[in-house]
Description:
Layout: E1 9-15, H1 22-25, H2 35-51, E2 58-69, E3 78-89, E4 92-101, E5 104-117, H3 118-126
Antiparallel strand pairs: 1-3, 2-5, 3-4, 4-5
Amino acid sequence: MSDICTGIKKSVTAEVTEEMLAVNVGSGGLRVLSTPSVAALMERAAFELLEQYLPDGMTSVGTLISVRHFSASPFRSTITAEAVLTAVDDRKYSFEITASDNCGEIAKAEHERFAVKAERFMEKTNAKL
Length: 129
């Protein structure tokens, strides 16, 4: 793997769309950003951070995410998730991730990803069919 060290960061931003609302995801009855959607944005930040360091043919897969979503965000608000790499153990990468809207922090997460050979991973996965 490329020179990757703890402390590196990546932010991603998205506007809350209809598809991200709890009422439409099925995780609640209100028109607010759903927890699954904020978790997906947080995971995307970690994925994009790690992806730029992996060699061709490698990717990463999420294996754990623990999210505390403590503030609601309305439809059309802008959400930013920032992932920070906190540990590297062979092919395992650990992250701390925060998500914020225009009023401040809305969620925190701990996340783990493993580097895998993409083709081999998909062969093993598709063998389950």
